[in-house]
Every structure is written in structure tokens, then in C-alpha cells.
Specification:
The chain contains eight helices and no strands. The chain is an all-alpha fold and 179 residues long.
Length: 179
């Protein structure tokens, strides 16, 4: 293709762009629309009512952790944990992988391992990994602790979460008593 052909193509594109813009300007001149002085209807917002509705929507569901934990079992937890094993180690002395080691995680302070670089959100989170915290985090990590760098979508099924928590509790020097 020589430069003359390329110039014709570029010229055609520019001509089409100018025609579209020109037709739009001419249409605005021909079909002028007057805005009404008085709106057809007025939308009024009750700010106090809207703010109370927003606070009512943010109510967190309280989970009966004892009932939840009764649905899980260790064998199922071992199967489900295989998804986690790609990034986490569960064995004593297993060390960190992409994610921190999870041996002794139940009952431990969140973001407490010295040899792992946690996200700022997890490092500043001032709680321990209780059964309730693990349940909420495993449901959807990004929603439970905003700013976590854990990219996992979460475990939707209650039985899966309960089983994984039981499995994590098993791998500890002193497993916590079940609720």
C-alpha cells in the first residue's frame, strides 16, 4: 500500500467525523428545544428518613456459631481445605506460602505472624481468629475485612465453612473447645 492510499483512507475517516459533527450542529439549530420553566414533577427527599433506612439495611446477621459448627465434620473439612492448601500451609513448621501458615490459627491474634507481610487492613485489625471471625472471613474475605489482599471469593455453604474451621482447629497445639 503506498502513501497515497493511506492518505485517502485517513481523509475519508476525517470527512465522516466532520459530517457527523456538522449534522449534529445543524440539527441543534433547526430543532431547538425550550426547557420548561416549571418542572413536570418535583422529587423531594426526606434526608432523615433516608438515613434511618440506610442504617436499618446495614444490620449484620447474627450467626448461631454452635449450630453452625455442628453441621461440619473433619473429613469434609480436609476435602474443602485442599482449595486453601494452594496458598496456605497447615502443618506445624510448614512455613508461609503465598498466604500465611495456618497452624495454630484458631485463637491467634489476626495478623500476628512476624515472618509474614500482611495487608494493612489485617495488620491493624484488633481481634483474634475466633470461630465467629473465621466464619465471617471465610464467607467473603473482602467484605469481612475491607482492604485484605486475600483474593479468594469465599465459601458460600455453611457446612463447608464449619468443616474448614473444625479442620483448622484440629491443627493446633491446644485446640479450642467447640462452642
Amino acid at each position: 500500500m503506498d502513501s497515497f492510499e493511506l492518505n485517502k483512507i485517513i481523509g475519508a475517516i476525517l470527512l465522516v467525523a466532520l459530517l457527523v459533527i456538522g449534522i449534529g450542529k445543524v440539527a441543534d439549530l433547526i430543532f431547538h428545544v425550550n426547557k420548561p420553566e416549571k418542572p413536570g414533577y418535583k422529587v423531594e427527599l426526606d434526608v432523615e428518613k433516608a438515613s434511618t433506612q440506610n442504617t436499618e439495611e446495614k444490620v449484620v446477621e447474627v450467626v448461631d456459631i454452635a449450630a453452625l459448627m455442628s453441621t461440619g465434620n473433619l473429613e469434609h473439612g480436609e476435602k474443602v481445605f485442599k482449595k486453601c492448601a494452594a496458598c496456605h500451609s497447615i502443618k506445624s513448621g510448614g512455613g508461609n506460602k503465598i498466604g500465611p501458615a495456618l497452624y495454630n490459627v484458631v485463637g491467634r491474634k489476626i495478623g500476628a505472624l512476624n515472618d509474614y507481610k500482611y495487608s494493612k487492613a489485617l495488620a491493624e485489625y484488633e481481634k483474634n481468629w475466633t470461630f465467629e471471625e473465621l466464619n465471617g472471613f471465610l464467607l467473603k474475605p473482602k467484605d469481612w475485612i475491607k482492604g485484605t489482599k486475600m483474593a479468594y471469593a469465599g465459601l458460600r455453604k455453611e457446612k463447608d465453612r464449619a468443616s474448614v474451621i473444625l479442620y483448622l482447629n484440629k491443627y493446633a497445639d491446644n485446640p479450642l473447645p467447640l462452642p
